[in-house]
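Per your request, structure below.
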């Protein structure tokens, strides 16, 4: 039977199952899980062998906990693990991390937990970004264990602990991908039920080798139950001194985007641009900030729904099927839609007031596409046209933003902190030209109190532990977002008081100035473009 099965099932204590990828040593034939699943005979044999909950239920057997090529070919292409990212790229990511570990080092990655509004009512799940980056697995109650091994085929082994297929629970909670899929589609060498993690983790940390894991909640993150279990195991085994933080290693890798990642971020920028245009067209006196927020979310979905177009005539065939990829997008963060003086609050998210004629709206919003975020801010007039004072302030901020974008290339040699210092000086210069005289200390403390930039990627504030003192390199994606918030204070010109302006784009860093790419350039930004959009 050795030449028939690459995925092997162990039966333990009556119910506990694991799925393992086997390499047949001493033979020229190495069998892998994907080969078994690829043939009807292999699938039939596997079904007979496993007799797991997955194969006993004709409905849930067809389900996974996330889109795969087999279930959602319109979202996940052949060869991809997740939309836009190939299986080979996930493997290379793991190799890159393992290369940073000492021989025998073991790394634990934990999924995000579910968060609940109230008993039995949960928030939409959002995976931990490091875990997703390394596995593509998008379910809670999961652990991935990477072990560096010189004898392993890939230089490492990947063991995953995930929720097993349980039709009775899936009836209520929705589909799960299960152990078989973790091996066959997500690159695991071995998969165990998540309930077995605590009793197997001790074996995985045996010996004197370093253990890499993030056991403490940082930046407001809540860690999973399994994270606490590992902490207790390490304490009982007096292995705490061997623990090293993993996230700095993963974040260094995440800082430089691949070609595939950049393409997903381009799409997120395009979708966000279309949504901003829709929100601008919906804007008007009496419209609620909440309505603009809803319009943005709806337009983001619609930007990924497209009828097939006859390219020979450039007309839409309304009888043809529709390509709907809207499931790939959701808001990247809680957005800001701040009318009038609400814009003086950096992260005003109440979004519940009616808009007033003559005011500006500061909208800071972005769509996420296949887990990659856009972060865009535009400021536009409620009534469709800027007043003279509004235009002056807006153009001052716009000029600063354009100047700082031009510094986002490796040849310039600037880190983000230096670009911020340049932006403060540039804003003081621009303000003087419109008769707004302010000392740089007032700009830094009150008029422009935030940083001009942060990294962007799977998270809106991506790779949060990476210093903004690092020189920019090609493959980095950053935001450039100068702002100006004029309080009701007689130190500042009365005509500008109560006005808040921020302009932000996601920028892909280039080697030279010519290589810089604005990922959200489709969102109307110049005063002329904004007014033209709102006039439609």
């Amino acid at each position: 039977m050795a030449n028939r099965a690459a995925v092997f099932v162990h039966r333990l204590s009556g119910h506990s199952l694991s799925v393992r990828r086997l390499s047949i040593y001493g033979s020229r034939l190495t069998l892998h899980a994907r080969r078994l699943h690829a043939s009807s005979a292999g699938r039939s044999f596997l079904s007979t062998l496993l007799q797991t909950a997955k194969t006993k239920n004709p409905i849930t057997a067809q389900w996974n906990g996330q889109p795969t090529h087999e279930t959602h070919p319109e979202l996940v292409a052949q060869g991809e693990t997740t939309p836009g990212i190939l299986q080979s790229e996930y493997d290379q990511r793991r190799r890159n991390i393992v290369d940073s570990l000492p021989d025998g080092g073991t790394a634990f990655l934990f999924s995000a937990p579910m968060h609940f509004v109230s008993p039995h009512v949960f928030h939409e799940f959002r995976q931990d970004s490091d875990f997703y980056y390394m596995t593509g697995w998008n379910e809670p109650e999961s652990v991935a264990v990477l072990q560096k091994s010189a004898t392993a085929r890939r230089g490492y082994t990947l063991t995953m602990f995930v929720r097993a297929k349980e039709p009775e629970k899936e009836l209520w909670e929705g589909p799960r991908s299960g152990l078989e899929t973790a091996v066959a589609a997500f690159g695991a060498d071995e998969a165990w039920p998540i309930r077995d993690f605590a009793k197997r983790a001790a074996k995985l940390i045996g010996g004197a080798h370093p253990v890499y894991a993030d056991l403490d909640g940082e930046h407001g993150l809540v860690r999973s139950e399994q994270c606490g279990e590992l902490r207790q195991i390490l304490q009982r085994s007096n292995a705490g001194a061997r623990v090293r933080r993993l996230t700095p290693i993963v974040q260094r890798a995440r800082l430089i985007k691949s070609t595939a990642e950049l393409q997903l971020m381009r799409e997120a920028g395009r979708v966000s641009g279309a949504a901003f245009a829709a929100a601008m067209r919906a804007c008007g006196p009496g419209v609620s900030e909440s309505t603009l927020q809803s319009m943005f979310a709806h337009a983001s979905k619609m930007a990924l729904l497209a009828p097939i177009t006859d390219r020979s005539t450039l007309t839409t065939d309304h009888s043809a099927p529709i390509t709907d990829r809207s499931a790939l997008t959701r808001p990247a963060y809680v957005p800001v839609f701040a009318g009038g003086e609400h814009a003086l609050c950096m992260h005003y998210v109440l979004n519940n007031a009616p808009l007033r004629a003559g005011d500006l709206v500061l909208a800071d919003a972005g769509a996420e596409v296949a887990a990659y975020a856009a972060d865009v801010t535009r400021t536009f007039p409620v009534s469709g046209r800027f007043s003279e004072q509004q235009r002056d302030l807006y153009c001052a901020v716009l000029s600063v933003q354009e100047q700082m974008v031009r510094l986002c290339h490796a040849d310039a040699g600037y880190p983000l902190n230096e670009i911020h210092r340049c932006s403060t000086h540039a804003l003081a210069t621009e303000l003087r030209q419109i008769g707004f005289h302010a000392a740089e200390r007032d700009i830094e403390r009150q008029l422009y109190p935030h940083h001009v930039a942060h990294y962007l990627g799977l998270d809106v504030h991506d790779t949060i532990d990476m210093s903004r003192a690092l020189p920019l390199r090609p493959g980095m994606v950053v935001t450039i977002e100068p702002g100006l918030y004029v309080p009701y204070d007689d130190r500042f010109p009365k005509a500008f008081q109560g006005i808040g302006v921020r302009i932000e784009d996601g920028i892909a860093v280039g080697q030279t100035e010519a290589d810089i790419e604005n990922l959200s350039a489709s969102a109307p930004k110049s005063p002329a473009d904004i007014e033209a959009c709102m006039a439609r």
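The CA atoms of residues 452 and 481 lie 5 Å apart.

Regards,
D.
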